[in-house]
Amino acid sequence: MKSEYIDRPAVLAEVNAAFYRYEQALISNDIEVLDELFWHDGRTVRYGASENLYGIDQIRAFRLQRPSQGLERQLENTQITTYGDDMAVASTEFRRPGSDSIGRQMQTWVKLPCGWRIVAAHVSVMG
User: How far apart, in whole angstroms, are the C-alpha atoms of residue 118 and residue 127?
Assistant: First the structure.
């Protein structure tokens, strides 16, 4: 891919807006927005800190069952890179108040007819 197709300002701005909208929904436990921003498909994958979720139905069930407290976190080293007009990868580290652990999150975003959606995600925590 030619470098002029990577990180086009308008596309990067769109993905940044979607990423930070997701982050706000995550820390406020806005399940409706969290669900909206994942691709509604059986091929969507989310690997969590202690769970492997395959398909939007498993991701939804997880969201409904997880605790709604203690979701605050501080992002660090966030890197969002877009490739062309309809694909991006977002990587970030996070820390939760009162914890020395470093969390890591990666998301693959694709622009679909309904807008930017997460098609794959991975969350892990380093000790």
Answer: 26
Contacts (Cβ under 8 Å, ≥6 apart) of 41: 55, 56, 119
Instruction: List all residues 6 or more positions away from 29 whose beta carbon is below 8 Å from its beta carbon.
Output: 68, 71
Q: Which residues contact 85 (CB under 8 A, 6 or more apart)?
A: 8, 11, 111
DSSP label of 114: T
Output the DSSP codes for 1-52: --GGGBS-HHHHHHHHHHHHHHHHHHHHT-HHHHHHTB--STT-EEE-SS-E
127 residues of the chain, pLDDT tens digit each: 788 899 999 999 999 999 999 999 999 999 999 999 999 999 999 999 899 999 999 999 999 998 877 789 999 999 999 999 999 999 999 999 999 999 999 999 999 999 999 999 999 999 7
